[in-house]
Amino acid sequence: MSQWKQIQQLEIRLLEHVDYLYDDNFPMDIRQGLAGWIESQDWDTAANDESMAAVLFSNLLAQLERVRSQEQNFLQRHNMKIIQQQLQVKYTSTPAVMARVISTCLREERRILSSACMQEQGPLEKSLQSSVAFERQKNMDNRVGVIRGSVQLMDQAVKYIEDLQDDFDFRYKTLQSRDSTDRNSEMMKQEVTRLQEMLNRLDFKRKEILSKMDVVIKEIDGLMTSQLNPELQDWKRRQQIAAIGGPLLTGLDQLQSWFTLTAQSLFQIKRQLDKLGELVVKVTYESDPIPLQKPQMEERVKYLLYHLIKSSFVVEKQPCMPTHPQKPLIIKTGVQFTTKVRLLVKLPEVDYQLKVKTTFDKDLPPGRVSRQFFILTNNTKVMDVEDYSNGCLSVEFRHLQLKEKKYINGTKGNEGLLSVTEELHSLSFEACFTVQGLTIDLETCSLPLVVISNVSQLPGGWASVIWYNLLTDEPRNLSFFGNPPRATWSQLSEVLSWQFSTFAGQGLNKDQLSMLGEKLLGQHASCSDYQVSWSKFCKENIAGKPFSFWMWLDSILELIKKHLLPVWNENYIMGFVSKEMERALLKDKEQGTFLLRFSESHLGGITFTWVEYNHNGDVRLNSVEPYTKNRLTALPFADIIRDYKVISEGVVPENPLKFLYPNIPKDEAFGRLYNSQPSKVHPYIPSTLIPISELRSNVSTSSPSCQSPEPPMTPGEFDMLNEQLCFGMDTMAQWQELLKLDSALQGQVRQLYDGKFSREIRHCLCVPIESLDWDLAAEDENKARTCLQALLVFLEEQWNRTVQQNSILLGPDFPAMKDYLLKNFENHPLSLAVIISECLREEKKILASASEAQSCRSPTMEQKRRMLDNRINDIRRQTAEVKKETKSLESLYEELDFIEKNWRSRVEEHPGFPQPQAVVEEQCLQQASFITRTYQMVQQQIEEILKQTEQIVVTLTDVELPEWKHRQQMACIGSPVDTSLDYLEKWFMVVAEVLLQMCKQVQKLQDLIKKYNRANFSSVSGPMAEIEKAALSLLKRLLSNALVVEQQPVMTSQPQRPLIIKTGVRFTVKVRFLANLTEFIQKCLLKVTPVFDKDVAEARTVKGFRQFDLVSSDYKVMDVYTAGGGLEAEFGHMLLKEKKGNSKGAQENNSLDRPASKRKRNQSEDDQNHLSVTEELHVIKFVMKFQYAGLDLNIETSSLPLVVISSTNQIPAAWASIMWFNILSNSEVKDLSLFLKPPSLTWEQLSLVLSWQFLAVGELGLNRDQLCALRDKFVDGPDGLVHWKDFSKIESSAWFWIDGILDLIRKHLVDLWRDGSIVGFVSRAKTEALLKEKQTGTFLIRFSESNKDGAITFSWVEHSVNETHVHAVDPYTKQELSVNSLPDIIYNYSMINTNRKPLLYLYPDIHKDTAFGRYYKPQEKAAPKNGKNGYVSKKFIPVSDNPTPPPSPTRELEMMETDSANDTKVGLTLHRNSHSPTIPQTIVLPTMDPKEVIQELFPDIFCGSPRLPDLSTPNQEMLSFQNNFVYPSSLV
User: Fold this and answer.
1) CA distances (Å), 672 to each of 652, 717, 844, in order?
2) DSSP state of 1226
3) How far apart are CA 1377 and CA 1308, in angstroms?
4) Over the Cα atoms of the chain, what is R_g?
5) Please, what sign has the CA dihedral across residues 771, 776, 779, 782?
6) Average pLDDT rounded to a whole number, residues 1248-1263
7) How confident is the model at residue 1446 (pLDDT cuts 50, 70, 90)?
8) Please, are residues 626 and 605 in contact by the beta-carbon 8 Å criterion?
9) What does the pLDDT read at residue 448?
10) What is the DSSP string of 1067-1115?
11) What percent of the chain has pLDDT over 90?
12) H or E element in which residue 898 lies
């Protein structure tokens, strides 16, 4: 039965609540007409996904149009048309808002249905949904309406007074204008009497209107005090309850109506008082009531307006992370969250440029919290009018982000008082409201927030949010958890039921709540008023368990939400039932009856218990070990129930589950929930995972003997150890040299230690490690033990030193290192010596290879850097000398000027000098000549420096920078090259500094000439202008190239595949300005603006070229964010959105509308001028305005060409385009139309890049044999070239197969690939050749060639009398490897009939335990018959039946295999060599029919869809083959 039909069957009381859900935002007519369609859509996801919401909105309009066209009733059809038009107006630009509205309505419907199933409502829900509340709202409507009517009448009264006063004023002035002789006439007396009556009337009306105003003002005051403010507080309390899963929060629009009408009334009264003030200016008199009463009334109105508007500023949507929409008020640092504030007063006079500023923990007293945070993103936004919400004034902050403040002294202050999840914070909102002369500072704050730094803190944070909002209505009691109050069980149980109705769609019934009460309260469970403490609820562990009550319950909620929702909503899970009740329910049921319940001993586990009768007729209940989310991720729970087997000694495995309690046949209950099916027959030996339990009659357990600790060292050993501890610092040389290697070679060093020895210990103990003789220790256990003791003593000494220096937190964790050595090597010191000896030898080989490679290069990169570095340092030194010379010149000028101006006075002071004038002139000429020579020398120095600088600038801009950009290109597609900008930035900074200094010195020299204005200096002033011009030109060239893209555009979800951008998905990019000078930072506001496809010619010339807009394209200001860091701007939240009307898909569809003949004529032209989505290249340009010291530059840089996709399944093809482009093109020439006529690649070019892909993913590139095996997959023709269309244009190309393998390695095989355990790429013929001469049980691991999504298989050899067989297991896919790791599969793989393990030696002759032992999952000790914690243990193991060689394959079978013909032929020939009898199958699974194959291949399309109709029936040949070819059913 649909949800809407269930709603319609509710009682009237509950239907009133449903009626309250639907209004103009989502009319009930739509809910009624499209009930089935609406309930089948995922509105929760669409509420947070704009693109998905747009699609659903479009579909909703189409569905509405369909229903309207079928409607026979004219009036109903007309109403639906009006509704359709209203929806289009409201939601066309904001479809996500519509999705949120519908999602909320559906969720509240489910909650109402859940409450109807309960026998009675909880106290909270009763209080929130009482009939008194509805009556109160009706009364409020009436009062507001009466006030509004009274104010309207007062408007008419003021108008009447104005007219009356105008009449009086006219008559009075007319009377005054008459002659004085007429004043005593009878007519004059009558006029005076009439005026007096009018004045009396006017006075009466003034007093009357003031009296009415006073009454209305008092009525508004009473309304605000007694009803409006309580209604607002009631709404805020309901918002608290709704936040923790309670009834839907409604009524804000109603509140806005009341606030707005009240504010309008007060503003109207204010205008009326202003009008009365104007009237007083014209006419007043003695005892006029307006001047006496108006000021007090105005103050009262302003006071009421102030408090009304101030209280109308509310948080409409509490802070919430989009990733957890049902858990608001929890914020994770570094994760965006949203919140929304609203002004409930809707006035046309409001200045809509109302800026709202957010502040975190505003005015928080010091010491209240241990952590402090600040808002990282823009915290100010302008309020705007929302058309879809009746024109309310609101603002939504959708991209807020918190970051924790760093503490210089290393401490957070008041630490340890409260846990992270008990520490409460608040988010404040401030704005300045100005209207009609009133200025009001608005402020409101969110409910208390919990800030977490890890998702593992989410359950504890949600518990705090629940407890706070359940027990207090205080908006900002941040010290709540200093002394948290207790909750009654009746309150708590109601909220717990809400959690299930919110997250799982169905609340808890009375029996389930009773069981929870018993678990939490024990004997007090029957008392609904029993007080539950916060500690007992969330902090104290359940008796005998390592977790609290809340952690246990929250883990069950997560399990239901992610894996059990269909089963839970069908009421198949009894859930919360004690073991005693379980026994009482099952003991009288027939064998095979089972029930489902949640585990009480595991977090987030579900188990089933079934009835079993022994030979004596006694009842035995077995419970399987609980299934947790890790297992349910790989196998759906319904499939587990279907496939579950019990293996007993000597008994054929069987499924003990027959009837779901009380007596529902298993397949009847779960049949429609089954989704995965066994795989179809093909040439592999099939292998699957099925759940099994093993029951043993007698189990003996024996604990391993504990070896006694080592005896104390002898004096001789101690002396040897003491001698070994005399380390020399020169022994660090080897490790220090390793640290200087490039990333590729350091990766090889890393591989040496992974899984063998801690690199941290190798780094911290490099001195003692390199000082000890490990080669000798590897042959002598006593010496090995001495070396181990040397390391332990060294660690102890280092630890004591850190304690003495009070630097425990700053240094390495020496105790942890010591524990590691003792745990792993105390009993096996020889193993430690062997490992370190081998690693040190390999380190030396790596250093030797690096040295050899360096000597082969001429000159090396390091030598080039050193040479350029020396040149740049030289011009810096010369510049300093020029600066010094200029300073001396300035002193010489000053001396000469002083002498010329003061020599006469000095001569007068010292008479007797012969010919003083001639002497002075001669000396001045000599001084001037020296100044000129010095000036010319400085000029020559500057010219020489500029010549050298010009060469350096050319080197930097034309050589070094392009080389770096090329390295960055290669790094983007996986090359392990160094892309550090440190050298370049240093050089750009020094050269820019030199050029600026040159300009300054030239300017200073010119100023000296102008200042002293001497004729003999004029000859040297001309060249200086040219020199300055040359220096500025070089500086412009340098700065124009200084802006670079340091980090190319990349989506955070695809860090290893940059330059691929998906529309609607955030991506990041970082630009850096290499001329990182302090004066630029201090004096220039360097704004960088991104522009998409700026000046791209292909947008006009290439057919169907898509166009996009940057959604977040605001500029960023360059800044230095870290000490010693670069001058950079990071665009961390960029989004692309395709422009409407230019969709490639739409254009391609439009081309189909042309006549066929025209299409055919233009086909060739279209093909030549058309690019697919993943071949279309785009760029992002970054533009920066630079203004400094007379320079005015527009500096630009651009990203590498990128591919824009709209679906994640386009990533492999897009990455192929990125690789192809960057192999062929350099960074300077960006041919965005390259794929119109893509050049071919040589195999040498492509093979190198393919090897990089494996190096990036698996830390190990491809060797020569692997590349040779791949060559045949890519190279077809005799020219040895790889053509683009063969590489990526067709879906069956080898690249998509390679991409699937890369994904397989990344997710499941990194360790094995890095160790070289996987041969990988080898044909079947090659496999046979490698294995046939090896001993029985030798196996190799290779990638499947028939599964393009990435699968791995192993082949092994078996020798019998005169026969050799090579078998290959059915390839393991990613889904299967997510359940069992490949090492565990290899370890457990066996033949089910003989219990024989066929895999013994990894090719060529390595024992499998030696190769994979360190990766095996630790085996649990054998459990007693009843299992651990009373459960029957379970596990998944891979098995196959003994393979029987098949006959010759049918044609259908040959077509299924995509390997080369020779490989298939050889593999089948091996099986035809034997004619052993067929081995019976112990477990037979049905084969998949074609519809199931389709559903298995495309689970993303058919997940949750109705079952497909039969596509075909297997033919007789295939059936015959299946009968002859016996293959194992599955993995057990």
Assistant:
1) 28, 72, 63
2) -
3) 7
4) 42
5) negative
6) 87
7) very low
8) yes
9) 92
10) EEEEEEES---HHHHHH---EEEEEETTT-THHHHSBT---EEESS---
11) 8
12) helix 861-909
In the chain, count H helices and then E strands: 57, 47
Give the other-Cβ count within 10 Å of 1523's Cβ. Answer: 9
What's the CA gap between 460 and 1237, in Å, rounded?
59
Query: The tokens 């079952």 sit on which residue?
Result: 1507
What is the distance between the alpha carbons of residues 801 and 880, in angstroms, rounded to a whole number?
A: 46
Spatial separation of the C-alpha atoms in residues 180 and 102, rounded to whole Å: 82
What mean pLDDT is reported for the chain? 77
> Which one-letter amino acid corresponds to residue 1467?
G
Tell me the C-alpha distance between 884 and 997, whole Å.
Answer: 12
Asked if 949 contacts 995 with a C-beta cutoff of 8 angstroms, the reply is yes
* Range 1368-1392 burial, b when 16+ CB lie within 10 A, else e: bbbbbbbebbbbbbbbbbbbbbbbb
* Spatial separation of the C-alpha atoms in residues 397 and 1202, rounded to whole Å: 30
Q: How far apart are CA 94 and CA 1071, in angstroms?
A: 33
Whether residue 1435 has pLDDT greater than 80: no
How many whole angstroms separate alpha carbon 394 and alpha carbon 384? 6
Whether 1009 and 1094 have beta carbons less than 8 Å apart is answered as no
Q: Does pLDDT of 1012 surpass 80?
A: no
Within 10 Å of residue 1268's Cβ, how many Cβ atoms? 12
Q: How far apart are CA 913 and CA 900, in angstroms?
A: 17
Amino acid at 904: R
- Going by pLDDT thresholds of 50, 70 and 90, the confidence category of residue 1183 is very high
Q: What is the DSSP letter of 1308?
A: I
Question: Which two tokens mark 633?
Answer: 């991720």
H/E element holding 621?
A: strand 619-623
> Looking at this protein, which amino acid is placed at residue 446?
S
Q: Residue 1275 above 60 pLDDT?
A: yes
Torsion angle in degrees (nearest 10) through CA of 248, 253, 257, 260: 120
Predicted local distance difference test score (pLDDT) of residue 724? 43
Q: Is 354 helix (H, G, I), strand (E, B) or coil?
A: coil
Alpha carbon 1067 to chain centroid distance? Answer: 10
DSSP designation for 1207? S
> What are the φ and ψ backbone dihedral angles of 928, each rounded to 5 degrees?
-65, -40
Contact 1193, 1123 (CB under 8 A): no
* Amino acid 1081: pLDDT: 64
Question: Which of 383-392, 1143-1152, 1319-1328 shows the lowest per-residue confidence on average (mean pLDDT)?
Answer: 1143-1152
Buried b (16+ CB within 10 A) or exposed e, 956-995: bbeebbeebbbbbbbbbbbbbbebebeebbebbbbbbbbb
Dihedral angle over CA of 1286, 1287, 1288, 1293, nearest 10: 70
What is the three-class DSSP state of 1355?
strand
**Residues 855-881, mean pLDDT to the nearest whole number:** 77
Q: What is the pLDDT of residue 1229?
A: 63
Q: Which single residue is written with the structure tokens 């000398």? A: 881
Lowest mean pLDDT: which of 590-594, 928-932, 1288-1292?
1288-1292
Position 836: which residue type? I
What is the rounded CA–CA span in Å between residue 361 and residue 372?
Answer: 8
Of 476 and 1018, the one with more pLDDT: 476
Lowest-confidence range among 964-968, 1210-1214, 1428-1432?
1428-1432
Cα 1532 to Cα 514, 643, 940: the distances in Å are 39, 10, 88
Residue that has been written with the tokens 């994904």 in this structure: 1303
Q: Name the DSSP letter for residue 478.
A: T
- Give kind and range of the element (H or E) at residue 1472: helix 1461-1472
pLDDT, tens digit (0-9, with 9 covering 90-100), for 1293-1328:
788 888 899 999 988 898 888 888 898 888 888 888
Residues 21 and 498: their CA atoms lie apart, in Å, by: 18
End-to-end CA distance of the chain: 38
